[in-house]
Specification:
Blueprint: E1 7-13, E2 46-50, E3 65-67, E4 87-91, E5 95-99, E6 105-109, E7 115-119, E8 150-157, E9 163-166, H1 173-180, E10 198-203, E11 209-214, E12 241-247, H2 256-270, E13 279-284, H3 291-305, E14 314-317, H4 326-338, E15 367-370, E16 376-379, H5 381-388, H6 395-408, H7 410-416, E17 424-427, E18 430-433
Parallel strand pairs: 1-3, 2-4, 9-11, 9-12, 12-13, 13-14, 16-17
Antiparallel strand pairs: 1-8, 2-7, 5-6, 5-8, 10-11, 15-16, 17-18
Length: 436
């Protein structure tokens, strides 16, 4: 089994805020001491940090749940609970993070040490010292901690490489990578020898350097899932230059020009924007006897079928076996990289507008529905958050929650929907009677 893993689905849960405390100052010579309960501590965030030492998402294969610690509860003497430590999760460079529910991209992590909070910890609940007023100098009210953010994430690794090698299986991509870099890819005389992307660093004679990725061989229908399918096509998206390797000896019995058209069609079908990347055609296996004549025919077909307004791609005849033409190819690749900008991977429609935790201000504060047993069901982010943070062990807190519901217009809305005195109202598993 391959140890390379480039996709993973995980669940993250930030820590809940600590509950606030109800306490009173009771000291011998301090009359009317008043409230003295402190606030709860903040829950821990879940933070992704880029680690350049990681190469795959293998760490997420068996560990799919990440939960930060909750904050400490508030204490007497007005002392706040300690905030929880953030949970640090290391990810490899090139990791794209999506919200699995919405499909929106939260962040694209490409720089070593880059950090992003994927789940925000809840704030601590307020202690009763916060609720003291001239009218109520000794409140028995405290808040529960705010729940931490919980979400399911889709991780996708797209390796960081300046140059991508593409082409049919057995055209010599792995051999080329092995002679121009120190990489040691598996090389064999059969299709799909390469089943994982291989990465290597090139250093030209003029001192230029760049990263090259050898991607598993494509075949017709790859963009629809044939062969290795789209499993590795994603890795070419970060590259700025494509080296299109073609077996000019036609040793597999295929036409080199038809190979060229077929691979470009798969790239275009997978992502039209891949065709924006400049290509260099690498005519490989020129040490074979038929290659020179095939290259001549290839060039004629290329010129005859190319749009006159488009610039013809450069063609470099090479032999990975004899190392013929490699230095010229690498110098030209470095030169093309220098004048090729980074390509934007995602447009604004794919990105989450704001990494925001909390209820949506534009969303309705609550919704009313009817259960099978005729009970009225209240739901909505704002209402559910108030409910979760209410300490129902304290009568004053319960009365405060009732006033908040009335202020939100829940009573009027229920009345308008036909609720009558004594009807059952449900929030989650909590039930109470409607009083008209």
């Amino acid at each position: 089994m391959s140890m390379f893993l480039d996709t993973a689905k995980i669940k993250v849960k930030a820590g809940n805020g600590g509950d606030g405390m109800v306490a009173f100052r009771r000291e011998k010579y301090v009359p009317n001491g008043g409230p003295w309960g402190g606030d709860g501590g903040r829950g821990g965030n879940v933070i992704f940090v880029v680690d350049e030492g990681l190469r795959t998402l293998m760490d997420f294969r068996y560990n799919r749940h990440f939960k930060a610690q909750s904050g400490e509860k508030g204490m007497t003497k007005g002392m706040h609970g300690r905030g929880a430590e953030d949970l640090i999760v290391h990810v490899p460079q090139g990791t794209t993070v999506r919200d699995a529910e919405t499909g929106k991209i939260l962040t694209d992590l490409i720089e070593n040490g880059q950090k992003f909070i994927v789940a925000h910890g809840g704030r601590g609940g307020r202690g009763n010292i916060r609720f003291a007023t001239p009218k109520n100098p000794a409140p028995e009210i405290s808040e529960n901690g705010e729940p931490g953010q919980e979400r399911e994430l889709q991780l996708e690794l797209k390796i960081l490489a300046d140059v991508g090698l593409v082409g049919f299986p057995s055209v010599g991509k792995s051999t080329l990578l092995s002679v121009i870099t120190s990489a040691k890819p598996k090389i064999g005389a059969y299709h799909f020898t390469t089943i994982v992307p291989n990465l290597g660093m090139v250093r030209t004679q003029s001192g230029e350097s760049f990263a090259v990725a050898d991607l598993p061989g494509l075949i017709e229908g790859a963009s629809q899932g044939v062969g290795l399918g789209t499993q590795f096509l994603r890795h070419i998206e970060r590259t700025r230059v494509i080296l299109h390797v073609i077996d000019m000896s036609a040793s597999e019995g295929r036409d080199p020009y038809e190979d060229y058209l077929a691979i470009n069609k798969e790239l275009e079908s997978y992502n039209l924007r891949l065709m924006e990347r400049p290509q260099i055609i690498v005519a490989n296996k020129m040490d074979m006897s038929e290659s020179t004549e095939n290259l001549k025919v290839f060039k004629e077909k290329l010129v005859a079928n190319y749009d006159e307004f488009d610039e013809l791609p450069q063609i470099f005849p090479i032999s990975s076996l004899t190392k013929q033409g490699l230095s010229t190819l690498l110098d030209a690749t470095a030169e093309l990289l220098d004048k090729t900008p980074e390509f934007l991977l995602y447009d604004e429609s794919e990105m989450e507008e704001e990494a925001y935790y909390g209820f949506d201000e534009d969303a309705p504060a609550f919704e009313i529905s009817r259960d099978d047993d005729a009970a009225w069901v209240l739901s909505g982010d704002k209402l559910e958050k108030l409910f979760t943070m209410t300490n129902f062990d304290r009568e004053e807190a319960v009365m405060k929650f009732a006033r908040q519901l009335r202020g939100m217009g829940v009573d009027e809305a229920l009345r308008a929907r036909g609720a009558k005195d004594g009807d059952l109202v449900r929030i989650g598993k909590f039930e109470f009677e409607f009083v008209d």
